[in-house]
Design a protein that fits this description.
By secondary structure, this protein is mostly beta strands. It has one domain: Jelly Rolls. It is 15% helix and 39% strand. Strands 3, 5, 6, 8, 9, 10 and 11 form a 7-stranded antiparallel β-sheet that branches. Strands 4-12-7 form a 3-stranded mixed β-sheet.
Length: 178
């Protein structure tokens, strides 16, 4: 749980701890748009094949107008193209990822504005990212509308998922939500 005290000018000061982080499911901070691909047979097929075993998404801190999330995607996690209804800055703690033609690693980051579509692919060994969002409640809109992407994602999932049981801790070793 976050601990809050008042400083000398009345502004809140808050401590938060990684061990107290909540999963997005527990925190209820992100809602899926009802008419997007999370309800499609293609998405359901990936989930049933174990896609979600390749990710951990935990809310570290939240207050109106701000949230901080720790994300760990394992090697090659198939992240569908999507958008959110809030601005977000992403900071890579450890591991690496490919976004477009760019390879990014520890200390690198990127910014995605409200409703801007994006995706990225975690590299070998996965990636850990901090997400600093301009909202404490936001949506996710899946924007994949072609079968070819889902087929490729299913193929990639079959390729990378056998490595996931060996990836027992995020690359940084930070224990979040434990």
């Amino acid at each position: 749980m976050a601990y809050t005290v008042k400083d000398s000018i009345g502004l809140p000061f808050t401590l938060f701890r990684a061990r107290d982080a909540l999963s997005y499911e527990e925190a209820g901070v992100m809602t899926a748009e009802p008419d997007n691909s999370t309800g499609t047979p293609e998405f359901s097929q990936l989930v049933e094949a174990g896609m979600l075993e390749g990710s951990r998404v935990n809310l570290l801190f939240s207050r109106p107008g701000l949230s901080l999330t720790h994300v760990w995607f394992k090697t090659g996690f198939p992240l569908p193209r999507h958008s959110h209804d809030a601005d977000c800055a992403y900071f890579i703690i450890s591991g690496n990822l490919r976004i477009g033609t760019e390879e990014l690693g520890p200390g690198d980051g990127f910014f995605v504005g409200t409703d801007v579509p994006y995706t990225y692919t975690p590299g070998e060994g996965g990636v850990e990212v901090l997400e600093i969002r301009t909202s404490n409640l936001f949506d996710i809109k899946m924007l994949v509308n072609n079968t070819a992407w889902w087929d490729k994602a299913a193929e990639r999932l079959r390729e990378v998922q056998p490595r996931w049981p060996e990836e027992t801790a995020p690359p940084s070793g930070i224990k979040v939500g434990v």
